[in-house]
Write a structure and sequence with these properties.
The protein has eleven helices and ten strands. With 355 residues, the protein is of the alpha+beta class. The protein has two domains: 3-89; 108-339, Bira Bifunctional Protein, Domain 2 (BirA Bifunctional Protein, domain 2). The strands form two sheets. Strands 1, 4, 5, 6, 7, 8, 9 and 10 form an eight-stranded mixed β-sheet that branches. A two-stranded antiparallel sheet has the order 2-3. Strand 7 (254-267) and strand 8 form a beta hairpin. Helix 1 (3-17) packs parallel to helix 4, helix 2 (21-32) runs antiparallel to helix 4 (50-89) and helix 5 (108-121) packs across helix 10 (312-320). It is elongated, with a radius of gyration of 36 Å. The protein binds phenylalanine. Phenylalanine binds at residues 171, 173, 251, 254, 284-286, 307-309.
């Protein structure tokens, strides 16, 4: 065995026995570097008689190729094993409390949805959900909306197909329909969610949020609606006194219908709720139309009730002094950091809604 062959044998053993990447790196330089075994052997070429050189070089090259293959096979094995070991050994205990919450804030819209849900859950409402992609029947027809109603116009509604049967819901009212068709009365639900209309300016965005309310039982009347909204607005704005007015309005799915304004005044550009003589519209409501109850298989002679639809984003703007709705959906981290809420501080009626 030549000296070269001996070294190759040794080095192969080393590769075979190596256990980690740093060992392999050392062996690699021992073999392949400028002063490594291979290059030192090549240097001998010059001192050989010309007719032996070709074979000699061919032999080194084949040894080199052989070593490279063994080496890269072993490297891959070691690398795979290191990754598997790392995955197996690096465990985090997710039951440990977080020490330092610096990043990640709850969006004001999510915060307001949590606040509103907490307020209504106190008086027995449960939460329902419906899909953003709705059919024409649930969004309009079942809600007693005539074929030629302006809301059905392409300018207002985002249709998803040519024959205008599938759409992005224009309000959360189809959740009323879904809830009534799914269960038996009485119903006492709220349904927060995304809604869509083709509109965009300082107080309108193509996607916005609503919260639907529906209370159907025997002998429910407008007085219950008024009491319920009065309670909600006081709790939401965390004030003892509010000014509220019902303005006659029209929705195809309620009769009578009203829009509700709350009284406020401005002090140094800040909104003070419950005083003053300015009015701000915050929701639409009314007594559910008998045709809607019929469409939803509810006996309208026995059962009746009210529904309302609140603009969530508007409430968030008012409560937290944000003056451009479009900024809600720009995903600007600095904005979220400023207006966002602590994820661990979940709003409840007992602990306070918005500390
Ligand atoms: N769906 C109505 C809207 O989007 C609001 C509303 C809901 C009105 C329920 C009455 C009853 O404007």
């Amino acid at each position: 065995m030549t000296e070269f062959e001996k070294k190759i044998f040794e080095v192969k053993e080393k590769i075979k026995n190596s256990k980690n990447l740093s060992e392999l790196t050392k062996i690699s330089s021992e073999i392949f570097s400028k002063n490594g075994i291979i290059n030192l052997e090549f240097k001998k070429l010059g001192s050989l008689p010309p007719d032996e050189r070709k074979n000699f070089a061919a032999n080194i090259n084949s040894v080199k190729k052989d070593l490279s293959e063994i080496f890269s096979k072993k490297s891959n094995e070691v690398l795979d094993k290191e990754i598997i070991d790392k995955v197996n050994n690096e465990k985090i205990d997710i039951t440990l409390p977080e020490k330092d919450f610096k990043i990640g804030k709850v969006h004001p819209v999510s915060q307001v949805i949590d606040e509103i849900s907490s307020i209504f859950s106190e008086i027995g409402f449960t939460v329902e959900e419906g899909p953003d992609v709705e059919n024409d029947y649930n969004n309009f027809t079942a809600l007693n909306t005539p074929e030629n109603h302006p809301a059905k116009d392409m300018h207002d509604t985002f249709y998803l197909d040519q024959d205008m049967k599938t759409l992005l819901r224009t309000h959360t009212s189809p959740v009323q329909v879904r809830t009534m068709l799914k269960d038996k009365p009485p119903f006492k639900i709220i349904a927060p969610g995304r809604t869509y209309r083709s509109d965009s300016d300082q107080t309108h965005t193509p996607m916005f949020h609503q919260l639907e309310g529906l209370h159907i039982d025997k002998n429910i009347n407008m007085g219950h609606l008024k009491g319920c909204l009065n309670y909600f607005i006081k709790e939401f704005f965390e004030v003892d006194k509010i000014k509220m007015r019902f303005r006659p309005s029209h929705f195809p799915f309620t009769e009578p219908s009203a829009e509700v304004d709350i009284g406020y005044r401005l002090e140094n550009n800040k909104i003070i709720i419950g005083e003053g003589n300015k009015w701000l519209e915050i929701l639409g409501c009314g007594m559910v139309h008998p045709n809607v109850l019929k469409n939803c298989k509810v006996d309208h002679k026995k059962f009746q009730g009210f529904a309302f639809g609140i603009g969530i984003d508007r409430l968030a703007m008012l409560k937290y002094g944000i003056n451009d709705l479009r900024s809600f959906f720009e995903c600007d981290y600095r904005w979220l950091n400023h207006y966002g809420f602590d994820p661990l501080d979940v709003p409840t009626n007992y602990r306070g809604l918005s500390r």
